[in-house]
Fold:
Amino acid sequence: SRYDIAGLKADLDGIPLIDEPQVVRKRSRDFFWYSPILNTELADKSADIIACPRDEDEVVRVAAACVKRRIPLTVRAAGTGNYGQAVPLEGGVLLDITALSGIAWQKPGVVRVAAGSRLLDIDMATREAGFELRMHPSTKRSATIGGFVAGGSGGVGSVTYGGLREPGNILAARIVTMEEEPRILELRDDAAQKVNRAYGTTGIITALEMPLAPAWPWIDVIVAFDDYMEAFQAGYAVALADGVVKKLVTPISWPIPATFGALKQHCPEGKSILICMIAEASLGPFKAIIGQRGAVTYEAASEEGPGTVPLYEYTWNHTTLQWLKGDRSITYLQCMFPHDRLLESAAEMIARFPDEVLAHHEFIRFGGRMTASALPILRYSTPERLNEIIALHEQAGVMIANPHVVSLEAGSRHKRADADQLGFKGEVDPLGLLNPGKMASYVATGAV
Ligand code: FAD
Structure:
C-alpha cells in the first residue's frame, strides 16, 4: 500500500479492524455491476483496511488518524448503492458505520436515529407509535438511513412526499469532519442538504433526524392492462388523486413482468401491470378510479418480514434486479420526465426506442407537482449507443442522472456539483480525503 497502514493500526488500537484481503476486497464493492461500464472500471478497486467504530468517539479517532497520515476514508453502510458510491477509488480505509445503530428518541412525526440503522428496523420501531419513514428505497430491508441520505434520492413514498431533496424531508444531520482535530457539527433544516446525496464526501454522518408519516395499513395491489399507456394513465390518475392515500404507483410494461418469477400467476401473459401500495381506507376510491380500465389480479396486506418478499421489491431499481437474475445482458437508465407534458413525453420515448428501452415509471411529486421518474431496462450493446440514447433523451427534455459514471457531477441531472456542497467540503474535508474521486470538481484547499 502507498499508505502507512501499520502506523494507522497502532493509532486505532482497541477499535475493531479487518485486514483480511478477501474480506476487504469484497466489502469494497457495491451494486455497481448493474452497469457494464462501471463493472469494468471498478473491478480492481479495493480499500487497504476496514475500520468498524462502535460509537461516535471511535469515528472521531478513525477520522483523526486518517487525516494525520493522509489516508483516504470512504464510509460504507449496507453497500447497496448502484454507482460505486461506496467503492474506495484510491484505497485507504473503509469505515463500516453499521455498528452505530439504534433510535435515540422519537416523538409524533419525528425520529432521531444513529446513521447506521437499517431502514426496516427504524420503521418497525416507529410503527408502534403509528408512524413510519416518509419514504424509503426499494432496498429497505438491507439499506441504512445514512446510506439512503448520503447515496440515495427517493423511493417508495415519494409519490406523496417527493424526494429527499424536498425541504423538510431531512430535518437534521450530525457529522464528524475530516480534520486533524475532527469537529462534530449539527446541520439543521436547509444545512442538512449539505450531506444529501454527497456520497459521504462532506462529512461522516453519525446521526439523523427524519420526519415521519402516518403508518397506514398498506394494501399491495396489481392491476393488469392490455396496453402500457393505459396502465400509465390509470397510474397517473391515482397519483393525482390527493384524497387517495398511497405510497407507490408503478406502471410496468410487458415483457418486464415475465421476469417476475414469484408473481407469475398475477402477471398475465402479454399484459402491462400497475403495482400500487394503497391505504386500506382508500381501496374503494382507488378501484373506482381504475374502473373498467384494468383487472385487479392481486390484492393483499403489505408484508416485509425477513422471509417475505414485499411487492415494492419489484419496483424502482429492483425491477432491474428481477431481470438481471435471469439475464445479465441488460442495464438501465435513470430518467426524470417533464411534468408539463408527462404523457406525451413518456409515449415519445417508448416509440423512439421500441424493444431497446423497456418502460416502467415511478410517479413522484417534485417541487409540488406530480411527475414521473423512471429506471427503464436498457438492452445494452455498446458504450457509444448507451451515450447516444442518453443524449437523445436529454434533447427530448427528459433529464438523465447517468448511473454509469462514478462522479457526483457526471451522475447528476445538472452535470455539476451542488455549489453549497462543494463550498462546504472545503470547510469539513480540506484535504479531500473523504471518498476521493467522487466530488470530482473539488480541488483540495490545502494546509491543515
Ligand atoms: P451504501 O451503499 O453503503 O452507501 C451509499 C453512499 O453513502 C456511499 O457513498 C457511502 O460512502 C455513503 N454513506 C453511507 N453511510 C454514510 C454515513 N453514515 N456518512 C456518510 N456517508 C455515508 N436508491 C434510492 O434512492 N431509491 C431506490 O428506490 C433504490 N432502489 C434500489 C434497488 C436496488 C435493487 C439497488 C441495488 C439499489 C437501489 N437504490 C435505491 C440504491 C441504494 O440501495 C440506496 O440508495 C440505499 O439507501 C443505500 O444505502 P446503503 O446503506 O446501502 O448505503
User: Anything to note?
Assistant: The two ends are 23 Å apart (CA to CA). The chain has a mean pLDDT of 96. Residues 30-31, 74-82, 85-86, 97, 115, 137-139, 143-144, 146-148, 150-155, 199-200, 204-205, 316-318, 321, 435 surround flavin-adenine dinucleotide (CB under 6 Å).
